[in-house]
Structures are given as C-alpha cells and as structure tokens.
TrEMBL record:
Pfam families: Ig_Dlec1_1, Ig_DLEC1_6th. This is Deleted in lung and esophageal cancer protein 1 Ig-like domain-containing protein. GO terms for biological process: negative regulation of cell population proliferation. Residues 40-126 form the Deleted in lung and esophageal cancer protein 1 Ig-like domain. It comes from Clytia hemisphaerica. One of its GO terms (cellular component) is cilium. The lineage of its organism: Eukaryota, Metazoa, Cnidaria, Hydrozoa, Hydroidolina. One of its GO terms (molecular function) is tubulin binding.
C-alpha cells in the first residue's frame, strides 16, 4: 500500500523533460523485478560435476554469500533426485544468521549410477519474497563417433562373401560401446565392467556379421569395424542394429547390401559376326562365329571384341583357346578346317579383372605360319563363381564358369606374285665376256606385303644375277629389277632363273634365252686394215 501511493498517475498537463534521467517503470514490471531479486549469491553457479565414474561419490562446496545490508536466515530445499544430496551447512554464527557480506557453505554430494548426464536443483529460501535456484549438473565429455547411419556393403555375388572395413574414430571423450540387434534394445541389459573389450567376437545377423561387437575408444582413438556380407538371393538385404554407449546413449544404424549373379554381354565384334556355311565344321556349343578372311601366312591380323560386365561386381576372367567339339559325322563333311592344339589364335589380354559395370576391349590375334584352314573355339570363363551345392542347399562351392564361346576361323592363301615378262631374250649375236642388262617387273597382286629372293645362276655357258636380289613388295604394288647376263662360252643359252616368294611351296622362275659368240682378235685386225686401205 505504501508503494501504491508512489505509483500515482501523472498530471496529463505536465510534460516531463525528455532529457530526464529518471527511468519510469510500469506497475507490473516493478513487481516482477522485486520478485526476482536474490539476497544471496551462489558460488559456484551452477554446481557442475564432470569426469565421474560409476561406483564413486563426489563432493563440491557451495558458498552462499549475503549481498544485502541486513543479516538474514536461509533455508535450502533438498534436490529432487537421489543422485544429489545436501549435507549440513557451515554458518558464520551459531544462530544461523548470515551477516551482510558473510557467507555460509554447504557440501553437495553426487553419486552417479551410470555415465549419463544428470540434472537437478536446490532452492535457497530466505525472509521476504526472494529465492535462489541453483542448478546441479553431472556432465561428462560425450564420445563422438563418425559411424554413418547407413552402413553400405555394396553388391556381392550370391553365395559369395564380401568383407568391407569401416574406420570409426572417436573425436569426443572416453566411451565404451556395444552393438546389438535393433529388436533386442528393450530386453538387453549390459554390465559394462564385465565386458571383454579385447574380444573380436562379432554380432551375427541375417546375411551380415559385424565385428568387433564390443570395443572401447579413448579420445581421438579409432577402431576398424569389419562387416561381412553373404547374400542368399538376388535382392536387397537390410538389417537394423543399435550402438549402445556406456553413457546410456543409443544410436540406431542399418546395414544394407545387394545380392547379384554374374552376367556379361558381348557388345560388338570388329567386322561383325558371321553365319555358318553349309557343310563346314561347327562346334556343338559355340553360337557365334568370327572369321578371318583373305589372310596370308606370316602376317598378324587382329579383330576387336567389346564385352561388358552387367553387374556392379568386379569379376576375374580368363580366355581359353581350345579345339572345337564336333561330332564324327561333322568331321567327315568338313571343309578342310585344321583342328590343332597349337593354335595360331591368341586373345589379349588373356586374363584379368572385369571391372564393375565396365566395358573392356579384347584383341583376337591371328598369326598363321602356313597356308591352311584354321578352326578353334575361344571360351570366356569367369573364375571362382559361387555355385550352390545340390546336396547341401545352404552351402556353396567355387568353380570357373563359361559365359561366352566363340568359334574362330581363319583361312590363309598363297601370295600372288608374278614376274612380268616371264620370258626374256637377248636378240642377235652377243659377245662372250660382255654383261648385258634387261629390266623385268615383279608384281604383287596380293593384299599384303610379300618378301622375295632371287637365286643367281652360274653355269658353264653364262652367269645371271638380279638386282636387288631380295627384299619385299607391298601389297598391290610392283618393283623393277635389272637382270645381268654375262656369256662365258659360245653357243645358245636357255636357262631359268628361280625366285622364291614368302610361304610359297615351290619357286617361280624367269625364262631367259640368248646366243653368245666369241670375239676373234685376227678378224678384228683385218677389218681395221681394210678400212685404212680404203
């Protein structure tokens, strides 16, 4: 009532000086400020316990200082939980009064049962309307792990086992952890002090194993978590897990993985695939045919295959070149294909890893050494593919599986190299001891470069040599040669000059004819004297 007399309404005719330093308050605001006034100052405020362990009790001193101008009594209301307790206070006087500027102390005891965070309070009551609420807190530096919510194991072949490592680092405080299944959260009780943190025991789930199941991490320490994924079908697999911490924090995660079966595709073949010819030898299993046509011996030919891995799982492969599997009837009507173990066919690369969902080029190399028909089968085999055991349905074994079989056929033909003209003649009478030259042309009508070699002829009557004596001629081109003929004895000469073309079974020949005479010295002198006399 005394205060209400001071809070009278102002005269509306009186306008206060705007420069006035007097701050006015509304009636409700004045009452609120008075209610929030405290007569004691707490130190510390709040009361904080940290770095605690289960099974121990911790104590802190709380100092309450009278900050008013009058001596006051106080009363403390106990904490609401059993984890905090208040012991008898120490007052500066025997009557419980705290003089202005004096302090009294109390002991706060904290007994945690777990390593979680705790919150409570005590309230200080004194004469008047003022009161002081002091928070009581239990805090530990929480562990912080970088484990993702989704642990993705990727793709794996059905029946195979895939292991993936995840590095978990703790950037927070010390913590102890345990993985459990998501459906066991409400029924699992853990005694953290009885666990073996050096064990590599894993948590078993459907199609997954995660290990270690139990581990402990200091600040900035890391651990490698291994997840083993073994799918049983072509589908997606999902398992929920919960990571428990000794500070009673639960984090939910889920592990996912996808089962696949091996699958490849032949995308393209350089020059395309060919259809079988009526009556030719065919393999019983190979459906595709690749032909090398118009080939020549001692020349290397290549064709490019493009194969794609259709699943996101890398797989080991191997090319196998083998003779074809044909029936006895087919062998009697074949078209002359040479079926040999020593094959002129090779594939590069012959083995390796086919990356996930990747396309890879392969070179089929045909390097024949003779004139013949060649036939082999190239098998693209995937290595270590899991196959279900028919006797034990839940078990698999590994074996190589053939995914692609291609018949490879090649035919070689002789080089078409001829000399033009095929006959050379020296007209008239030619003197012995004098070298005569004739020009001939060697024409290569083949589609590939061919090598040649001329053989010199040295007989009693003459000697013949070609220049150049050896070399090579590009496909569909020609080369000129000088044929040098030297007579040794009078008479008619009729010889054949052999030349060898690469891979030819027999030598070809250039036919040469000439007539040589001896030059007499006496006839030459008489002729000169007769000319002088005239």
């Amino acid at each position: 009532k005394l205060q209400q007399r001071a809070d009278f309404l102002k005269n509306p005719r009186f306008l206060p000086d705007p420069r006035s330093l007097v701050k006015t308050f509304k009636k409700d605001a004045v009452a609120t400020i008075r209610h929030e006034e405290s007569y004691f100052q707490a130190n510390p405020h709040p009361v904080l316990f940290n770095g605690y362990e289960v099974g121990f009790s911790y104590q802190l001193k709380l100092e309450l200082k009278n900050i008013t101008a009058a001596s006051r009594q106080l009363r403390l209301i106990e904490p609401k939980t059993n984890y905090f307790s208040l012991k008898m206070g120490d007052f500066p006087s025997t009557n419980g009064l705290v003089a202005p500027g004096m302090s009294c102390t109390f002991t706060i005891q904290f007994t945690p049962e777990t390593l979680e965070d705790y919150n409570d309070q005590i309230e200080v009551k004194t004469m008047g309307e003022g009161s002081l609420v002091i928070p009581l807190q239990g805090r530990r530096k929480p562990p912080i792990l970088n484990l993702p919510d989704e642990i993705n194991c990727g793709h794996c072949l059905v029946g195979d086992v895939k292991t993936k490592d995840f590095v978990i680092q703790n950037t927070g405080g010390l913590g102890r952890f345990c993985f459990i299944n998501a459906d066991e959260v409400n029924t699992t009780q853990i005694d953290w002090d009885q666990l073996n943190y050096d064990s590599e025991e894993g948590l078993l789930m459907t199609n997954f194993i995660i290990s270690p199941r139990i581990f402990s991490l200091q600040e900035n320490e890391s651990v490698i978590i291994k997840v083993v994924f073994s799918p049983e079908g072509v589908k997606s697999f999902l398992s929920g897990i919960v990571l428990l911490c000794d500070n009673c924090v639960k984090n939910s995660h889920h592990i996912i993985g996808i089962g696949e079966v091996a699958d490849i595709e032949l995308i393209s073949v350089e020059g395309g695939l060919h259809e079988p010819i009526l009556g030719e030898t065919q393999d019983l299993q190979a459906e595709q045919i690749v032909r090398f046509q118009e080939c020549y011996p001692d020349v290397v030919y290549t064709k490019t295959l493009l194969i794609k891995n259709r699943i996101p799982v890398p797989m080991d492969y191997e090319w196998i070149i083998s003779p074809p599997q044909v029936t006895s009837n087919a062998l009697t009507i074949n078209s002359g294909d040479a079926i040999e173990t020593s094959s002129p066919f090779h594939i590069h690369p012959s083995s390796g890893v086919l990356d996930e969902e990747a396309e890879q080029c392969f070179q089929i190399i045909f390097s024949p050494t003779s004139i013949d028909h060649w036939f082999n089968v190239a098998t693209f085999s995937m290595k270590n593919i899991p196959v279900k055991n028919e006797e034990e349905e839940d078990k698999y074994f590994y074996q190589n599986q053939d995914f692609l079989q291609i018949s490879i056929k090649g035919q070689t033909q002789p080089y078409n190299v001829k000399v033009e003209p095929g006959f050379v003649a020296l007209s008239g009478r030619n003197f012995c001891g004098i070298t005569y030259y004739k020009t001939v042309t060697l024409v290569n009508k083949s589609g590939s470069c061919a090598s040649f070699q001329w053989q010199n002829v040295d007989t009693v009557r003459c000697s013949v040599a070609c220049d150049p004596s050896n070399g090579s001629i590009d496909g569909n081109s020609s080369m000129e040669f000088l044929v040098a003929i030297t007579g040794k004895k009078e008479g008619r000469v009729d010889v054949e000059i052999p030349y060898h073309v690469q891979s030819s079974v027999t030598d070809s020949r250039l036919h040469l004819q000439a007539h040589f005479v001896m030059a007499r010295q006496q006839q030459y002198s008489d002729g000169c004297n007769a000319m002088a006399a005239n």
